[in-house]
Amino acid sequence: MKTFLHILPFGLLFPIAAAAEKVELRTPATSFVIELAKGAEPMFVYYGPSLTATDAANLGVPTDANWSHLSLYPAYGATHMQDEPCLAMRHADGNLSTQMLIDRWERRSVSDTAPNGEPRQGEELTVYLSDPLYPVHVELHYLAYADVDMMEYWTVIRHDERRNVTLTQYANPVLPIHRDNVYCTHFTGSWAAEAQLSEHALEPGTLLIQDKDGTRNSGMRRNEMLFALDGPARENEGHVIATALLYSGNYRILVDTDNTDYHYYMAGPSPDNAEYHLRRGETFTTPRSAVTYSTHGTNGASQNFHRWARRYQLRHGNAERMILLNSWEGVYFNINQEGMAQMMRDIKSMGGELFVMDDGWFGTKYPRLTDNCALGDWEVDTTKLPEGIDGLLRDAREAGVKFGIWIEPEMTNTVSELYEKHPEWVIKAPGREPVTGRGGTQLVLDLANPAVQDYVFSIVDRLLSQWPDIAYIKWDANAPMMNHGSQYLSADDQSHLNIAYHRGLIDVCQRIRAKYPDVIIQDCASGGSRVNYGLLPFFDEFWVSDNTDALQRIYMQWGTSYFYPAIAMASHISAVPNHAVFRTTSLKFRCDVAMSGRLGMEIQPKNMSDEEKDLCRQAINDYKLVRKTVQHGDLYRLNTPYDADRQAALMYVSAQKDEAVFFWYKLETMKNHHFPIVRMAGLKPDAMYTVTELNRIDKSPLSFEGQTFSGAYLMNHGLLLPADHDVEWNRRNDWASRVLRLQAR
Ligand code: DGJ
Fold first, then answer.
1. pLDDT-derived band of residue 18, with 50, 70 and 90 as boundaries?
2. How close is the Cα of 499 to the center of ligand 1, in Å?
3. Long-range contacts: 375-383, Cβ < 8 Å, 24+?
4. How much helix, strand and coil, in percent to the nearest 5, is found in the chain?
5. pLDDT tens per residue, range 261-289
6. Cβ(355)–Cβ(325) under 8 Å?
7. In angstroms, how far is CA 151 from the centroid of its own chain?
């Protein structure tokens, strides 16, 4: 039995109850240690590379750390007036102070089903806390995976006060990060320019990253963050903590750096205009945070996230994805039966496996000719498609491809039969005309309302039960919440809207997956506005961006790759001039960029020349050779596009390191510019790899075509790549790229 004295700011000493126990949770390469004592707050001890038993036994709460406050779950109003609290509430009697102290804790082995439906194993620690003055109870959960370096943590809040308790802050526990030379990386952007990387030193003050879109939460700011602990992030070296909030709703992430020795990271749903009236006995479960630690730089952290995602957090993460043609940029709303059939035949002729009919196929009273009507009226427009979905499925069968279809089930337009019938289903402020979005008429349906949840489920249910051959759904969401108001929630509970909407959405997704586990579903929202791990357990992939320009895609896919695996990144070859930025890149360049993700096409094949089709056919064929490596291999980012050297390179290496695929892109052409050689990574030094160029367009092979090199040479030196393509004069342009396949002999 031991009593610990913890020093608080302003010289206060307070005793922590006796019988403190250190609890260590382990993943294959990491340890997380906290100190627990009945009647005390849970205290942070350590998060980092695996500890030896002796180290673990000798470590304690770092009390030498300059006034650091290492409670994992500071609650507002008693001992934590100066710190950012995880939890703040107004008790039924109006008291604003809360203190959360440990009652008990337990650890158990976990052998259950992960959110994506796959079996998983690990260990879970639950710490039970309560307020000494009020019957308020919080469970802190920490889950360490047995086979991947990932830990998840979340909280469950409940109370037995006589009347409602109002939660005003409800973040997940704090993750303290020692103040060494910490650089933080996060991702911002906008429509058609998603996932731009931003890295800076963590300075004193509070870094606040939040999103208030309402329906989608990743178009402008992503809820993932990476901390390089020893200076600016390096790809293959250095210590890195990477973390994500597994949530699709509004969020708030804080990194607070005060005068103490730590940075304090905390993440949770945004409490802005979202106080939550918790009923007696009701539980409030926060979305999970996921965190990993890498001693192999940012690549190591990305690989940990990718592995965990493919196994446990992405639907069908262990399968391979089909190569598809999506109709949007090819025909936009100009859908018609023969046009669809022609696209099916064309993608098949180039080696594709799936055709997806995008927006514009529905609406009878209000045909969807443009984006201002008919969302909610999911009946085929028979003037465009006289034989309906039956006819499309028949055409797909005849063409020899699978068929997929676009829907936007959470939305409606003021011009729609659905809105005429159910104006009470839309989100709008009481007493006000609704503010509308896309097309001047779009509105968000109120998923807080169980009737709306049933309706959204029924859209998918009807499509898949009536036409079980539909293999793929593109689920879009093109409007933010532009009004605050649920016509379902009571006047008192209007502030529940965002939480209730996303609970409703998850509920619908769970119902869909329970009934239709196999269908492939793409998560799309005005491009990449819904790239989050809250939804991916139900979706197979996401649309990275509405911007398909190959050059800008290199940056967006680069940023996205920090947390998301290539298998989930829909990446399509499109027409030039590009429809978003009007740049004309070469088709070879477009193919090579798209091949580094989940390859598809977003183009009207009818407008392509035979030569262009041949090149795409070759790209698709070649992609099939390396599909498994791209979609399931380990990513190594080699040369960032953000550097001044104007080249970018990455590679994927199979788990056995017997197959790899290397991508190189020239970002700008300047005469007599010298490109540094890119060193490869992730290979076996003593294995011999034969190099084959894929998507070759040059008249003569590269000097090393078909030759064999040791992994050591490729990683210590690398291959010298010509900066231009050796093609006829009239075919020259300023774009150059290389895709190299490496096969161990
Ligand atoms: C936005 C998506 O990002 C596009 O790919 C396309 O599906 C359109 N919506 C259709 O309206």
1. low
2. 26
3. 375/408, 375/411, 375/412, 375/413, 375/416, 375/418, 375/442, 376/411, 376/412, 376/413, 376/416, 376/417, 376/418, 376/419, 376/445, 377/416, 377/417, 377/418, 378/407, 378/409, 378/459, 378/462, 378/463, 381/335
4. 20, 35, 45
5. 999 999 999 999 999 999 999 999 999 99
6. yes
7. 17
Q: Which residue has the tokens 């058609």?
A: 192
Asked whether the predicted pLDDT for residue 603 surpasses 90, the reply is: yes
In this predicted model, which residue has the larger pLDDT, 15 or 317?
317
User: Measured between alpha carbons, how far is 574 from 327 in angstroms, rounded to an integer?
Assistant: 11
- Residue 456 Cβ < 6 Å to ligand 1: no
Q: pLDDT by residue (tens digit) across 330-352? A: 999 999 999 999 999 999 999 99
Q: How much is the pLDDT for 707?
A: 98
Ligand 1 probe mutation, 325, 357, 543, 571, most atoms within 8 A of CB? 543
What is the H or E stretch that residue 228 is in? strand 224-228
Is-above-0.90 flag for pTM?
yes
Query: Which candidate in 211, 256, 346, 476 is catalytic?
Result: 476
Query: Model confidence at 19, in pLDDT bands (50, 70, 90)?
Result: confident
* b/e per residue 29-59 (b: at least 16 CB within 10 A): bbbbbbbbbbebbbbbbbbbeebeeeebeeb
Contact call for residues 143 and 251 (beta carbons, < 8 A):
no
CA–CA separation, 663 and 629 (whole Å)? 12
The residues that bridge with 325 in the sheet, in sequence order, are: 355, 601
Assess whether pLDDT exceeds 80 at residue 13: no
Look-up of token digits 């000493």: 13
Question: What's the confidence (pLDDT) of residue 67?
Answer: 85
Instruction: Respond yes or no: is residue 476 known to be catalytic.
Output: yes
Give the C-alpha separation, 80 to 128, whole Å: 19
Give whole-number Cα distances, 140 to 48, 185, 252, 279, 320, in Å: 20, 27, 19, 20, 36
